[in-house]
Amino acid sequence: MEALFLRAQDIPEFVADGAADAGVTGWDLTLESGRTLETALDLGFGACKLVVAVKEELPLTVLADLAPGTRVATPFPRIARQLRGARGLQPEVIALSGAAEVAPHLGVADVVVDITSTGSTLRTNGLRVVETLLESTARLIAPPETVAAMRAGRGKPMADLVLALDSVLRARGKRYVMANVPRAALD
């Protein structure tokens, strides 16, 4: 096995293109890539939410109230554009590489779609969450055929990797105790 260290947002591309058999990245980034990949194992760390947030003083309380043409700043333009089809909304999506939370204060956008883990950065910037679009964690991702083969007992290398990672996750918070006890004292 060979490990490559890449930018988290590039991992879905490398895995989908076959340059890597599997990868570890956030589920939010996997969905944003638009590539057909599946979760082989949820690693349970890096938990965050992709949310829609607005300025505190705006009366918007539900996403359905988003007016057509509302400017939405986001590092997740693919997911934000999906609001059009899935929700019938008509936002104007402004793709940013980061710091979306300052966009409303600079007059660049009215709304942001961004990740948050505690919400403190949003609150610091005078924003409040209107809706959570998805919850994300770090995951071992792979092409669907690789995950299917593993689950069917045909993908041994992938199954071995999942077993190794899963055993570490299951061992968290547990202790291994070893003692030298004579057989006569075992009871």
Describe this entry's structure for a reader.
By secondary structure, the chain is α/β, with parallel strands linked by helices. It has 7 helices and 8 strands. The chain has helices spanning 11-16, 27-33, 77-87, 103-106, 120-124, 144-151, 156-171, and strands at residues 23-26, 38-42, 48-55, 71-74, 92-95, 111-116, 127-136, 138-142. A 5-stranded mixed sheet has the order 5-4-6-3-7. It has a 3-stranded antiparallel sheet with strand order 1-8-2. The longest helix is centred in the last third of the chain and has 16 residues, at 156-171. The protein is elongated, with a radius of gyration of 22 Å. The termini are far apart. The model has no long low-confidence stretch (mean pLDDT 91).
Notable characteristics:
7 helices, 5-stranded mixed β-sheet, 3-stranded antiparallel β-sheet, 30% helix, alpha/beta, 8 strands, elongated, single chain, 187 residues
Which secondary structure elements does this structure contain, and how are they paired or packed?
Layout lengths: L10 H6 L6 E4 H7 L4 E5 L5 E8 L15 E4 L2 H11 L4 E4 L7 H4 L4 E6 L3 H5 L2 E10 L1 E5 L1 H8 L4 H16 L16
Helix pairs in contact: 6-7
Entry summary:
It contains seven helices and eight strands; from the N terminus they run αβαβββαβαβαββαα. The protein has helices at 11-16, 27-33, 77-87, 103-106, 120-124, 144-151, 156-171; strands spanning 23-26, 38-42, 48-55, 71-74, 92-95, 111-116, 127-136, 138-142.
